[in-house]
Amino acid sequence: MPLRPSLLISLLPLFLLIGLLALNIKLFGDGATAGPNQLALMASAAFAALLGLVVLKIDYKSMEHKLIESIGLSMQAVLILLVVGMLIGLWILSGVVPTMIYYGIQIVHPHFFLPMTCLICCLVSIATGSSWSTGGTVGIALMGIGKAIGMPEEMVAGAIISGSYFGDKLSPLSDTTNLAPAMAGTDLFTHIRYMLYTTIPSIVIALILYTIVGFTRTAGELDRASIDLITKTLDETFWISPVAFLLPALVIILVAKRMSALPALFLGALAGGLLALITQQDLLAKLSGEPFSFLNAWKTTIEIAHGGIKLETGVSTIDSLLSRGGMSSMLNTVWLIIMAMAFGGIMEMTGMLGRIADAILSGVKGTASLITATIASCFTINVTAADQYLAIVVPGRMFRAAYKKAGLAPENLSRSLEDAGTLTSVLVPWNTCGAYFSGVLGIATLSYAPYAFFNWINPLVAIAIAVIGFRIRRL
Questions:
Q1: Helix, strand, coil share (%) of the chain residues, nearest 5
Q2: Residue-by-residue DSSP string for 209-255
Q3: Which of 154, 185, 204, 351 is the most exposed place for a label (fewest CB within 10 A)?
Q4: Within 13 A of 272's CA, how many CA atoms are on the CB side?
């Protein structure tokens, strides 16, 4: 019969993982996600399985079955990643992203770019209920505009993520917004209303910080000559037209109408390929190196869908900005997610994940302590199980009885699950969300994390509100 792991045994694989990841960052820097971190997760999963086999007497076949089952949970995320890679390549080719950049850099002021970026993503994510769809569509265009006006990319990525997760957390269309109250035992709109007490102050603080950073980071005037060169080159290379805005509008409408993200993004990618064949014939001929024909254009479009686009306009800013995309560009991220889910599956199967959570729960004394323990547990599971859904489901199941026993209304639990489970997932490099945004935006997770102000301010605000006892609803 399998034995229950001790806290020390449960923490050993986590300590090994953290040590290997820290070593990888020191040795490889941003390149750690291109292979070293995947190997660290694999080694940690193997170590956890070895402890399960030798110390806890767990059957290997059972662990292997759980590992495969855990990886299966990530397959939707993997498919979305591959489709987003294709969408990015085809939206660049079709002129969608270049059109957004073309108009965006002419109307945006660098001092207000970061708060405007955050607000735009807030609105889109509220409409769609999806942080992933927001980051994979308007997010990539905003990254391009930020680079064109000289704003550090990690700051832009942080603002995109803050806005994207604001809507993911509050929108009734969001899967996590529906999942959290279901786990806690409250209804959807009570949950949303109760989250406003922590969410609104957090986004206001984030917007103030983005405004301050924007003013301190861009003290001078825009380099108008550089802006003119970029717009002129974009106009000469692509067919630039407001018509291109119809494609992101299509994706936003489909997701807002409750279509799943995967088919909505896939339709957006197909529309991008079709638009490219109609409007970008000169560019397709140039990229193929042969006179335009439908077969040559089709071949080039397929190559870009799987391998990305590589531009040679002579303007380095545009070439580095728009030479990207393709399904193959997401393979490192896919590999990272698979290894992370393998580690999480072994940790759950051996009981180590539950043992760590129990240790956190054992120190609970009072309302503020209980809410803080919930937030800490959600973050811990985001780190160990590498999936935001598990970071909502596991603490939701574990703490539900504790909240009832403490006389706290279930919306206290549902709010805490979102304040930490949803928001901290994107701050962990090997979590499915952290890996996704790093792959889509092209910025290492630990580089953008300090600038994802909303995502780390919100859990702190939630703890502060619990400590002072503000709006803590009781049964």
A1: 80, 0, 20
A2: HHHHHHHHH--S---HHHHHHHHHHHHHHS---GGGGHHHHHHHHHH
A3: 204
A4: 34
In 3D space, the residue among 215, 143, 159, 165 whose CA is nearest the CA of residue 452 turns out to be 159
Q: pTM for this structure?
A: 0.77
Distance between CA atoms of residues 269 and 247, nearest Å: 9
Strand, helix or coil at 474? strand
Tell me the C-alpha distance between 105 and 119, whole Å.
17
Tell me: the pLDDT tens digits for 103-140?
877 777 788 899 999 998 998 888 677 888 888 878 88
How far apart are the C-alpha atoms of 326 and 429, rounded to whole Å?
Answer: 21
Select from 42, 46, 73 the least CA-distant residue to 340.
42
Contact between residue 91 and residue 97 where contact means Cβ atoms under 8 Å apart:
yes
Q: Between vectors from CA 419 to CA 79 and to CA 212, what angle results, nearest 5°?
A: 95
- 456/206 Cα distance (integer angstroms): 10
Alpha carbon of 442 to those of 136, 245, 447, 454, 457: distances in Å? Answer: 11, 23, 10, 20, 24
DSSP 402-417: HHHHTTB-HHHHHHHI
Q: Where are the domains of the chain?
A: 76-329
pLDDT tens-digit readout, 313-324: 888 778 877 888
Q: Which residue type is seen at 191?
A: H
Closest alpha carbon to 248 in 383, 406, 332, 139: 139
Torsion-angle region of residue 222: left (phi > 0), alpha (psi -120 to 50) or beta? beta
Task: Give the SS3 label for residue 184.
Answer: helix
At a CB cut-off of 8 Å and minimum separation 6, what does 60 contact? 49, 53
